[in-house]
Specification:
Layout (H helix, E strand, L loop, with lengths): L2 H19 L10 H8 L6 H15 L3 H31 L8 H7 L2 H10 L5 H18 L8 H18 L5
Helix pairs in contact: 2-3, 3-4, 3-8, 4-6, 4-7, 4-8, 6-7
Length: about 180
């Protein structure tokens, strides 16, 4: 048996061990299951993959607040780009007082919450989806700013999972 065979067997055993340990609520192995979701981002730009890989690394290191912040950043990066690509003219028409030459300038001049509202106004997202996004942004803000909020492992894993799945919903299916 060659080195490649041993490597493949070790990798398979590692995945099996993580799947078995992931059934225990307090096991850090539960985070490994998120890696399967990040693989579905493989056709996306490297920076998007990096946000979510780093978010998962934070969860593995029990840095739950940091993981939530990075997951929101990855999600909002894609959300805003896709919205802008599809609705730039609509955004300009809906917000005539907003002056911007491109998406980067727009994101520097308006808050994320205002961007979410205009996304609803231009029909990129619905009122129900906006409520969910507002809640997720609020949770991100609690993690990014000095507060007493300390998310549990379960809350952080759920948040990252939601952000990855929502991000995938804005992208075309990967082959």
């Amino acid at each position: 048996m060659g080195l490649e065979d041993w490597t493949a067997r070790a990798s398979k055993a590692r995945r099996a061990a993580h799947r078995a340990l992931a059934k225990h609520e307090s096991a850090a192995s539960r985070v490994v299951l998120l890696e399967d979701l990040t693989k579905s981002l493989s056709g996306t730009p490297v920076d998007v993959q990096d946000y979510f890989s780093e978010a998962i690394a934070c969860l593995e290191g029990k840095l739950y607040r940091s993981g939530i912040v990075l997951a929101w950043a990855g999600h909002f990066h894609v959300f805003s780009e896709v919205c802008y690509q599809k609705h730039e003219a609509d955004i300009r028409a809906a917000r005539t007082k907003w002056v911007f030459k491109d998406l980067a300038e727009l994101k520097e001049s308006v808050t994320e919450s205002h961007f979410l509202i205009v996304a609803k106004d231009v029909k990129f997202t619905t009122k129900a989806q906006l409520r969910i996004l507002d809640g997720q942004l609020s949770q991100r803000n609690q993690c990014a700013h000095p507060t007493l909020y300390r998310p549990s492992m379960n809350a952080a894993i759920g948040y990252v999972d939601d952000m990855i799945r929502q991000t995938l919903s804005y992208l075309p299916p990967q082959p």
